[in-house]
Amino acid sequence: xxxxxxxxxxxxxxxxxxxxxxxxxxxxxxxxxxxxxxxxxxxxxxxxxxxxxxxxxxxxxxxxxxxxxxxxxxxxxxxxxxxxxxxxxxxxxxxxxxxxxxxxxxxxxxxxxxxxxxxxxxxx
Length: 124
Description:
Elements: H1 2-35, H2 39-61, E1 64-66, E2 76-77, H3 85-113
Helix pairs in contact: 1-2
């Protein structure tokens, strides 16, 4: 039992060390790629940079979501912010219905406005 707990702690510490290291590498890679004029890859590396920074903040704040500066009793944590099972089921239904509409509208807008803009006499 103790070796199992020790193994879990080792994994947790290795992940806790890897997250800031991966974030640093991702941040350092964006300007390097931009200087090489590889803007597409620089953009793709900026996405995991944002995700990794958000994960670092979440890991640092856990279990708190919002820390109160007035009084510690007013701090919002994951236990105070939890929703009931019924609420989660209702929201899952709404997401299942709404997501295809959002994706469809995004595809429609993309196809409608794709292509280069050309300025001529009729442009304003």
